[in-house]
Write a structure and sequence with these properties.
single chain; about 25% strand; globular; binds adenosine-5'-diphosphate; binds magnesium ion
């Protein structure tokens, strides 16, 4: 049995800056893997490398045992890698359903099939009730749900969530945690970058902590949140954790 996603020795360099230094990780079906760390740690860059949006200096990425290292992002998406973006940019003038139909059409040529996939994604992300509303009218919590629905309409096997919970109020956060938990029940593997520790602790099976591109700790949420190195580099900051 191959892992859903395996990354070995990932290095990403921007000029003289090593943004991600020799990171190795493995993620099984149905598992939620959390990636945490201070701003500028390299979390989004690692996501970009694994999903095909950032060039890797070194390393290997495999999806269910298949080497995808050389494949561009759109091919990785077709093979089952879905992602949300830290800054969501829906087509404002399109409805919620239309926004979700666009990725659905990438793998379903018939309109009826694409619509079925899109409606499923809207239901899973809890935003089916807004299907016909222009996405410009959505509040933050619903924009996040739309971002999740767009990723789900690719029918991913591995889903990358980049700070999906940031800025949500407590009820919206609790609902989003519930949506993500339900998704993994059907075997979806999830990799999430998240500053909201409540979400990390409640959802993640395994957590890796990055700082300045380096892995500084790894383990269960309980292990890493009690690790003195992690408290010093990240959790103990007088600043609020948060990218924005
Ligand atoms: N396209 C880029 N070109 C140059 N430097 C970048 C680029 N993207 C990110 N960086 C740098 O890489 C480091 C990691 O950034 P990032 O991955 O966004 O961190 P995080 O998501 O953990 O906050 C930062 O120092 C950032 O300035
Ligand atoms: Mg980031």
């Amino acid at each position: 049995m191959h892992a859903a996603l395996e990354a070995e020795g990932i290095v990403v360099q921007f000029g003289g800056l090593v943004a991600v230094n020799d990171i190795t990780l493995s993620l099984d079906e149905g598992e939620i893997f959390g990636l945490i760390g201070p701003n500028g740690a390299g979390k989004t860059t690692l996501f970009n490398a694994l999903t095909g949006y950032a060039p890797m200096r070194r390393g290997k990425v495999s999806l269910f045992g298949e080497d995808i290292t050389q494949l561009p992002a759109f091919v990785r998406a077709r093979l089952g890698i879905g992602r949300t973006f830290q800054i969501e940019r829906p087509f404002e003038e399109l409805t919620v359903l239309e926004n979700v139909l666009i990725p659905a059409f990438l793998h379903r040529a018939r309109r009826s099939d694409a619509e079925r996939v899109a409606w499923d994604a809207l239901e899973q992300a809890g935003i089916a009730d807004r299907a016909h509303q222009p996405s410009a009218d959505l509040n933050l919590a619903r924009r996040r749900r739309l971002e999740l629905a767009k990723a789900l309409s690719l029918k991913p096997k591995v889903l990358f969530l980049d700070e999906l919970m940031a800025g949500l109020n407590p009820p919206a956060l609790a609902e989003m945690i519930g949506f993500v938990r339900t998704l993994t029940k059907s075997g979806l593997a999830v990799l999430m970058v998240e500053h909201i520790m409540k979400a990390v602790v409640e959802l993640c099976d395994h957590v890796m902590v990055l700082a300045s591109g380096e892995r500084i700790a790894e383990g269960s949420p309980e292990q890493v949140t009690n690790d003195p190195k992690v408290i010093e580099a990240y959790l103990g900051d007088s600043d609020e954790p948060g990218d924005r």
